[in-house]
Amino acid sequence: MPSPSKRKGSTYERAVVAWLRSEGWVHAERAYGAGRNDDVGDIDGTPFCVECKAEKSIDIPGYLRELDREMDNGKYEMGVVLIKRRGAADAGDSYAVMPARLWAQLAREAGYA
Which residue has the higher pLDDT, 93 or 34? Predict the structure, then answer.
């Protein structure tokens, strides 16, 4: 039986997959093999790297280092860390964290520059 923290993380990843599918990424699914040296994120089936975190203590610098590694491993141009918001059941209420350079790229590509 998985530990409570592993179970919590898996539950959150499943919620993120369901939410991504409802937002149009219909091929989103949980990735397996997290923690490997060649880890490419927690969610497959999207054109970007997604790292999911459902932890009591938030470590943004550590999460962004992990995201950078996973983006490099998967050759992704875009990536995001989704952090479960405490007390929120809807994955759409998660915090989306990314390096400012990626946010600026998104804004430019959306025509805001």
Answer: 93
Phi-psi group of 54: left, alpha or beta (phi > 0 → left; psi -120 to 50 → alpha; rest → beta):
beta
For each of the domains in the chain, give its residue range(s) and CATH number, in order of start. Answer: 4-109 (3.40.1350)
What's this model's pTM, rounded to 2 decimal places?
0.92
Going by DSSP bridges, is the β-strand pair 79-83/49-53 parallel, antiparallel, or unpaired? parallel
Q: Could you report the per-residue pLDDT of 25-51, keeping only the tens digit for each?
A: 999 999 986 667 789 999 999 999 999
Q: Do the Cβ atoms of 29 and 18 come closer than 8 Å?
A: no
CA quadruple 101, 77, 90, 13: dihedral sign: negative
